[in-house]
Amino acid sequence: CRKKAKMLSLAIKKRSRVPGVMITQTVEQLPPGKSTPDFTRKPIAVTVQEGKKTFFKAMVSGEPAPTVTWGRNKGEIDDPEKYKTRYDERAREHILEIININPDQADTYKCFATNEYGKAVCTTTLNVIAAGFKKKSQGGKKAYFNMNVVVTRKKQLPPQKEGEIDPKLWELLISAPKKDYEKICLEFGVTDFRWMLKRLNQMKKERADEQAKQLENVKQIEVKPNGKAEFGFDMQLWDPNSAVNLYKDGVMVPYADDENSKHSLRKKGTNYIFSIKDPQPEDAGFYQVDVEEANVLTTDFRVPAVEFVDKIKDAKAVESEDAVFQCVLSTPLNRITWSREDSSLEHGDKYEITVSEDKLTHTLRVKDCEIADKGAYYAIAGIASSRASLMVEDTKDDAKKFQVNRPEIKHRIFDSPPSFIVPLKRRTAPQGYECYMSCAIKGDPAPRVTWYWNNISLNTNTNYHITNVCGVCSLLILRVGPKDNGEYKVAIQNKLGTAESSMMLNVRGIHKV
């Protein structure tokens, strides 16, 4: 009994590589190849408007893979109408979704990662913005009141004891270092320093809250044709000397105004653009911008593991005709970025952007081409890009064009044996979720593709959704279960030979919180 009690009470505190994470090891010695849970990315604090929804996202490590659960300080999160948890296998993120947020959900939230060797825990904060009102202008003058108010209970300050304070005092104090407070106050005849500090702190917080509401026209992080990942927004600073800080996953990131730096900031008027030069997979994460103590922007930069199986190709069109660019990806994506040298392209009257059902084939149609439409076009998926040119012929040159005798172009076929450009990769999927696996192949003639599960052919099994588009072979299981565990194999064959690629699928059971 004493030995058992000792084992139960064993709790070895360990240091995490991520600040703010507490790890407790519950065994005296870890077996070879095993490890306690840890967070590789912890959830960051968010501020969201009442009635909206938000997410907390975390990434964990440990062997065996930890179970992740969520909690909060002042209540439960077991109401499925308010809270939903899920695991994004592709991004390897554990997600807590909070729906239709109310002010009473503002709280400190906890994320727990647990396995048989210990537990890791970290906390984050949800701030809720309640809807307010805006007063109409009177007498031709604009009078603005807060549309949004952060739900906090402000402590009432004592009334000013005597006389009125010159407004210039507060402006000087807000931008002055603390060591000069006493000197400035004496110059204005203020001797109650305790009252002054309380009033000054309240003014700073009010300005910080107001500053957070000045943010608009926020753009998500995009990779541009110049190879940089950028995000921009419009913001008007109350104090031009306010410190603007950039954070990635809660860690401050140094930046410069030199565009050749890894991280840089360009400012033009009220427009701010942060850029990441030569983005790599390790640059993925949660980025936030703070002005002094106020968080004004939180955005997510994802770098999916994707390649172009078939890149976009040069196109030619006559004026008033449509031109089409098309590419095929190795991994399904809901959308990619289409752009020209100076701007991203959006679906609308001029451009038609479509995606195939399997999310692998992406198409851009340039409608009713004009001479101004000629030039370079880019397809950007993650940090991979493909470039092609559009030539637009002037209809005025039709007479000359039809006088040209164009020889018939004969295409020569180069036979090649089948091979894998991107092979199958090992998967781990939660029970009850969909599971997607794919590979990219090549060969001429086009190879015949057969899928196997534990050496049983799946090509005629209607429980699996199998596709083969432009050399990208995919298999989708809508709801995986324990019966889906095992080896999956793709065999490809043409008249010049055969090739195979296989992977193991592990299905994790659902853990009840």
TrEMBL record:
GO cellular component assignments? M band
Q: Which domain of life is it from?
A: Eukaryota
Does DNA-binding appear among the keywords? no
Record GO biological process: sarcomere organization
Keywords linked to the UniProt accession = Immunoglobulin domain, Repeat
Q: Which residues does the UniProt record annotate as the domain Ig-like? A: 37-127, 304-389, 417-506
InterPro entries reported for this sequence: Ig-like_dom, Ig-like_dom_sf, Ig-like_fold, Ig_I-set, Ig_sub, Ig_sub2, MyBP-C_THB, Striated_Muscle_Regulatory
Its family? Belongs to the protein kinase superfamily. CAMK Ser/Thr protein kinase family.
What is the name of the protein in this document?
Answer: Immunoglobulin-like and fibronectin type III domain-containing protein 1
Q: Which organism is it from?
A: Haplochromis burtoni
